Amino acid sequence: MNISPRIINWVLKRIFLVACRVHGDDFKKVPTNGPLILVSNHVNFLEVPLVLAFVDNPRLTGMAKKETWDNPFLRFLFNQWKIIPLDRNAVDREAFRMSMQALEEGKLLAVFPEGTRSKTGKLLPGKPGVTMLVSRKPVTLMPVAVYGHENFWENLKRLRRTDFHVAIGEPFRIDLNGSGLDRDARQAVTDEIMYKIAELLPDQYRGHYTFEEPPDYRYAVAA
Fold first, then answer.
1. Could you state, in chain order, the average pLDDT of each consecutive group of 10 residues for the chain (223 residues)?
2. How far apart are alpha carbons 53 and 205 in whole angstroms?
């Protein structure tokens, strides 16, 4: 069964607004067309459907662990949104190919460099998968930080609305300065991407990427 993603997004937005106070003015910063990679932190199940519904752009896709398709409801949603399934236990060349194809088609691709949910809202160390995309194709990235919804289930049980905050930063790109992308460089690029997200978060959510002085960027430059 196929249903227009716009109809799905309309329904989901109404549901989310009952359960959450969405502070989402920054959604307006997301451009209509790509190629663009949205890099975001990952707290729990909520941000993926909420962000997709509120951005409400049929050109927005993303990657999610393939186990998500075991849930019939999420399988239906993710198939309508054309989300790319990712095998986190192997080098998933097919997911990489589909992601590159989406960028070649001028789409927006949502990526979560942590690779898993933090659950507490505090940033976990980033994994270098996203660096393979930016090393193969020069593409603009845009940092997205979401926070405040780590206690969603507890609030729901108590019939309390949850504050869902969204902060979107300035676009940037990765310039490798002619250097090779060895293991250390991959991790350094990943960390700089994560610091771009951390800068948008309140101090208590920065976790692994807490800083006292502004980060010194070597590879991340203004787009």
1. 86 96 96 95 93 94 90 90 88 90 95 93 93 86 98 95 98 85 89 98 97 92 91
2. 24
Instruction: Say which residue the tokens 């849930």 belong to.
Output: 71
Structural fold of domain 5-222: Glycerol-3-phosphate (1)-acyltransferase (3.40.1130)
Q: Which residues contact 7 (CB under 8 A, 6 or more apart)?
A: none
**Sign of the Cα pseudo-torsion (92, 119, 139, 64, in order):** positive
d(CA 177, CA 199): 23
The residue assigned the tokens 């990765």 is 174
Indicate if the alpha-carbon torsion angle 41, 45, 50, 51 is positive or negative. positive
Q: Residue 221: enclosing H or E segment and its boundaries?
A: strand 220-222
Instruction: Identify how many contiguous H helices and E strands the chain contains and give both numbers.
Output: 7, 9
Please tell me the pTM assigned to this model: 0.94
Q: Which two tokens stand for residue 192?
A: 């700089």
Q: What are the structural domain ranges in the chain?
A: 5-222
Q: Is 3 helix (H, G, I), strand (E, B) or coil?
A: coil
